[in-house]
Design a protein that fits this description.
Strand content: 5-15%
Radius of gyration: 31 Å
Mean pLDDT: 85
Shape: elongated
Largest sheet: 5 strands, parallel
Number of domains: 2
Number of strands: 13
Length: 503
């Protein structure tokens, strides 16, 4: 059974009522018990009750101390169960929550009855939680099986507020949660079949460990995905596989490239998630000239090319501006015009039917993403200097459909929240970039790709095609008309060679 161990603050609280499959139920509990045994000092299992077995002197002492305390301000009272200040403070906050909820829900006829309730919560915490290890990198787990009393529900809620993951399992019926859990901390999953409660240990004795598991905790992972990951800052691999990107230009200075260029999207300023749309903060930088200090310039270039030589699956390097196929529009390609809709966009399903379409070998999600991004670009009025007319739209569509397959691969490998695909271009001597390739760079930037253009001669002018506020441009100390990437290669490699020799 796959117990979900999460290293973040978002924890879960589930109630599984009834039985989905009689034949698997005991096996599921046995597997759960087995997995919990592996969580040393990080798991609690209660079987039909939470035993109150503390010494009477301790219970009486706590009860007496409560007589002099401000029950409405327990956080600032002298109650210390945990040596770690932060954990103890978390406990006091959770205790206050449970006490406040109890005073709101329960008929405490007098202070003595109320203090008995509070005493029980504190003693239970001392007995069962004091030795829990909160520093394992994942949330502690509490499983409560069977019938449950009202005060025990408050204790589970206290544990939840202390960042425990909570599973309440009852094969027969729901208890008092609906009356008590007014803030909906827990989520109930009901199955139609029921059975006698028995005990957790007895059921586990009848069961056997499941090797190939898709049971209670698997349901948690699948069914409550939204609760566990959305708005938590934690993301599952390929969580947004069917989502979309919104590229956000990073307004930075050139020195920031060395610091943030290799950072994943989720760690950059401006990163955000809105439903299934991921805002990806990206670099789009044209760097004219070079530093007077050659070593400083080499350091900047090498930072963009790390690891050197490039072996990263998300980074491409071009020594000239021809990053893809600059196909002319043939008679055959004019059939694309028949795929255009009344709003100016193109019917992507009709495009896929044409014999000039070359993306069939890629996943359907990638194909749709590339084509929908094209439609997004041609609807924008703020990216290109000149509004795209029919001929320009057709030209861009042809460029997209003939996109360099290495570029498609880094897009296919783009998880939106993680490592951002990168294109680094070094223009040798007085090389420039054609208008078609600049238009394609605008499209790629709109996808959310980092683009860095080293232009030592300063001869390349992106602003003829792309609006100047849609990319960053900096002019370094001096313009150099004869600099080539090959002249820098020795500077890039030499330090590493000497490092190996004299390490």
């Amino acid at each position: 059974m796959q117990i979900k161990l999460k290293n973040n603050d978002k924890n879960y609280f589930y109630r599984f009522i009834g039985i989905e499959d009689f034949f698997k139920y005991n096996d599921e509990l046995k597997t759960l018990q087995s997995k919990c045994s592996e969580l040393e000092n990080a798991c609690l299992i209660f079987d039909n009750e939470i035993v109150l077995s503390g010494e009477m002197e301790l219970i009486q002492y706590i009860y007496n101390e409560l007589q002099t305390m401000n029950i409405n301000d327990l956080i600032n009272q002298d109650i210390t169960i945990f040596d770690d200040f932060q954990i103890n403070n978390k406990f006091l906050e959770a205790l206050q929550y449970a006490v406040n909820l109890g005073m709101k829900n329960e008929n405490f006829f007098n202070d003595n009855i109320r203090n008995n309730f509070i005493t029980k919560l504190i003693v239970w915490t001392y007995m069962y939680v004091k030795n829990i290890d909160f520093n394992k990198g994942y949330n502690p787990l509490c499983i409560y099986y069977g019938k449950i009393e009202r005060h025990e529900i408050y204790f589970l809620m206290l544990l939840y507020k202390m960042n425990f993951d909570i599973l309440y399992i009852n094969p027969l019926k729901e208890e008092y949660f609906e009356e008590i859990d007014k803030d909906k901390l827990s989520i109930c999953k009901k199955s139609m079949k029921i059975d006698s409660i028995e005990s957790f240990n007895e059921r586990c004795k009848k069961g056997k460990i499941i090797e190939n598991i898709e049971t209670i905790t698997k349901q948690i992972q699948k069914e409550i995905h939204e609760e566990l990951f959305v708005n938590t800052g934690m993301f599952k691999p390929w969580q947004f596989r069917n989502g979309f990107t919104k590229s956000v230009l990073l307004d930075t200075i050139v020195e920031d490239i060395e610091i943030y260029f290799n950072e994943p999207a989720k760690l950059r300023d401006g990163f955000d998630v809105d439903g299934n749309i991921v805002k990806v903060p990206t670099f789009f930088y044209k760097i004219d000239g070079a530093y007077a200090d050659r070593s400083k310039y080499v350091k900047l270039v090498s930072k963009c090319l790390e690891p050197y030589p490039i072996s990263s699956s998300n980074k491409l390097f071009f020594e000239n501006g021809k990053i893809s196929y600059d196909e002319g529009i043939s008679d055959e390609m004019f059939q694309l015009m028949f795929c255009q809709l009344s709003d100016g966009t193109f019917d992507i399903e009709e495009i896929k039917k044409l014999n000039i379409y070359k993306f069939q070998k890629y996943n359907e999600v990638v194909q749709n993403f590339l084509l929908n991004k094209f439609n997004e670009v041609i609807k924008r009025n703020d990216l290109f200097v000149n509004k795209l007319d029919k001929d320009s739209c057709l030209k861009l569509l042809v460029l997209v459909l003939n996109l360099n397959h290495d570029i498609i691969r880094i897009i296919d490998n783009f998880d939106f929240v993680g490592d951002i695909p990168k294109i680094v271009i070094f223009l040798n001597k007085e090389d420039t970039i054609s208008e078609n390739m600049i238009m394609l760079l605008g499209y790629l930037h709109n996808i959310g790709i980092d683009i860095i253009i080293f232009n030592p001669s300063g001869m390349c002018n992106l602003s003829n095609v792309i609006r100047s506020d849609k990319f960053n441009q900096v002019r370094l100390d001096k313009i150099s008309y004869d600099t080539t990437y090959n002249k820098l290669v020795f500077s890039l490699i030499k330090p590493s060679v000497f490092t190996k020799l004299f390490k």
